[in-house]
Amino acid sequence: MVLNYVLCEHNTRPADEAALIQLLAPYAGRFVLLRLSSINPVHGSPLRPSTREADFIAALSRHLEGWAVSHHLSAGREAAAACGQLRSEILDLAPPTSCSRQADATD
Question: Fewest Cβ atoms nearer than 10 Å: which of 6, 23, 27, 45?
Answer without folding.
Answer: 23
